[in-house]
Amino acid sequence: MKHPYLTRAILYFLVGIAFIYFGVQSKESTVWNSVTLIFSAVSALCFFCSFKMFGYHNKIKKKK
């Protein structure tokens, strides 16, 4: 059974928050190192997917 869009959206949002946390914890003397940038890029993608799935959920909810 496929998971509903709302469940996946919440999961992606939480993963995005976790990657932001790991990015903040991994900063050294400067924010512009590769590990921090990778964590922030992955969190941005997770937030993008999360917002898209929230939109899909609302679109399906309005159709019903």
Fold and architecture overview:
The chain is mainly α. The chain has one domain (about 5-60). It has helices at about 5-25, 35-64. Helix 1 runs antiparallel to helix 2 (about 35-64). It is elongated and about 50 Å long. The protein starts with a helix and ends with a helix. About 10% of the residues are buried. The mean pLDDT is about 90.
How many domain regions? 1
Strand content: under 5%
The outline comes out as elongated
Report the order of strands and helices: HH
| Mean pLDDT across all amino acids | 91
Structure in a nutshell:
With about 60 residues, the chain is an all-alpha fold.
Chart the SSEs and their pairings.
Layout: H1 5-25, H2 34-63
